[in-house]
Amino acid sequence: NQVYRAGVLGRRPAVPTDFAELERRARKASSRTAWAYVAGGAGLGRTMRNNREAFDRWAIVPRMLRGAADRDLSRDLLGTRLPAPILLAPVGAGQLMARDSDLHTARAAAATGVPYVYTNQGGTPMEDAAAAMGDSPRWFQLYWSTDEGLVDSLIQRAEAIGAGALVITLDTTVLGWRPQDLNLGSLPFARGLGIAQYTSDPRFRSLAAERVLENPAEVTLAAVRSLLTMVRNHPGGFLDNLRSGRPRASVETFLDIYSNPRLSWDHIATVRERTSLPVVLKGILHPDDARRAFELGMDAIVVSNHGGRQVDSSIAALDALIQVREAVGPEKTVLMDSGIRSGADVFTALALGADAVLLGRPYMYGLAVAGQRGVEEVIANVIAELDLTMALTGVTDLAGITRDLVQPVPGRA
Ligand code: FNR
């Protein structure tokens, strides 16, 4: 175990190996508005708290003397080979944490072999992120637009960049109530962040340009850069935009198209005709919704409350996972995210029914502290702790992480 040896032998890592210190360092490295958006949660923050407290209610019960010297953490998931049961969650407007955040993350994912789920709200077009990754696995996350043509175009682009699966996020038909952002008046999309997937679409490529033309005093460097990219790639579109006079406020256009408040099972039922990619529904919390997803022929679900950013007082993702697994049976592919902070957490989630988990904020904090290397270390640390936990609980592969290896903590359940 390289990470562990390096630490024991006195080599200092680029990012702290414990989450609390990582969080402190990331906060220091970030602006107030960036921190509010990335670290913040919905409402009073109860869902974020629930996510963590759910892990505190479970204890691992290690088994001894099983000779678990050689361990295999790999898993095949919907045709994607995972070196360990983790993926990088889609995180929008990551440029708040670091310039070219999606590219740094893409390179870190490629270096570790961990799949990267590209966000619909990227600061880098998915084509550029894919180019930075070689053959390493990538998936694409879709927000179902009000514009059905845009839905098709995003799906086709995801197919073209070799995405291994299409992840449709269900829990963000509108943005949640996020007081920190509201108080600071700082929704990142209004500053031209996180809109690169649209601006490389022929029909929406003028979004960034419009933003720059609208209010030159307020735009971010990122918006100017996406404008320049657009001018370089689509000079015609830029000129059309200029000729058409003052465009509609781009933020309004963005809010109109980025997600569909009317999204229903009827939309999801059409997805099978639109792509042959494996389809994953992200943001499921109720067992009936989980059953319905599989009845509709979906390949997998992600039990998630969006890292506590959407509904305040929501059920913890880990609690929902237990109910969902119970409802769908042992065979279905069920992923989980929201609150995973360590390798021990991954172990607990797998014991309670997850096939793999997604990391959100932890890798964003690594990015804020040390860029690509920070992301790589966060991934390596989580995997290393999971590996050691398996060694010390007598488990040699992921199938060995069974329900009997965790118990409710007495008095806390
Ligand atoms: C997210 N998440 C998210 N999910 C998604 O499907 N599309 C997106 O664009 C985003 N954007 C986003 C931005 C930021 C700043 C955060 C923190 C999260 C949710 C993300 O995929 C994942 O569900 C959570 O981050 C998991 O929870 P933890 O690990 O952050 O606790």
Please summarize what this structure is.
With 413 residues, the protein is an alpha/beta fold. The protein contains 19 helices and twelve strands.
Description:
This protein is of the alpha/beta class. 46% of the residues lie in helices and 11% in strands. The protein is built from 19 helices and 12 strands. It has helices spanning 2-8, 19-29, 32-39, 46-56, 101-112, 126-131, 148-160, 179-184, 196-199, 206-214, 221-233, 235-243, 250-257, 265-269, 271-274, 287-295, 317-328, 343-351, 361-393; strands spanning 58-60, 75-77, 80-82, 86-88, 116-118, 138-142, 166-169, 279-284, 300-303, 333-336, 356-359, 406-408. The strands form 3 sheets. An 8-stranded parallel beta sheet has the order 4-11-10-9-8-7-6-5. Strands 1-12 form a two-stranded antiparallel sheet. It has a two-stranded antiparallel ribbon with strand order 2-3. α2 (19-29) packs antiparallel against α19 (361-393), α10 (206-214) crosses α11 and α18 crosses α19 (361-393). The radius of gyration is 21 Å and the shape is globular. The model has no long low-confidence stretch (mean pLDDT 91). Bound molecules: ligand FNR.
Bound molecules: ligand FNR
**Biggest sheet architecture:** 8 strands, parallel
Our measurement of the CA-to-CA distance between the termini, rounded to an integer number of angstroms, reads 34 Å
Strand content: 5-15%
Cofactor: FMN
Organism: Actinoplanes aureus
Protein name: Lactate 2-monooxygenase
Binding site for glyoxylate: 37, 143, 178, 306, 309
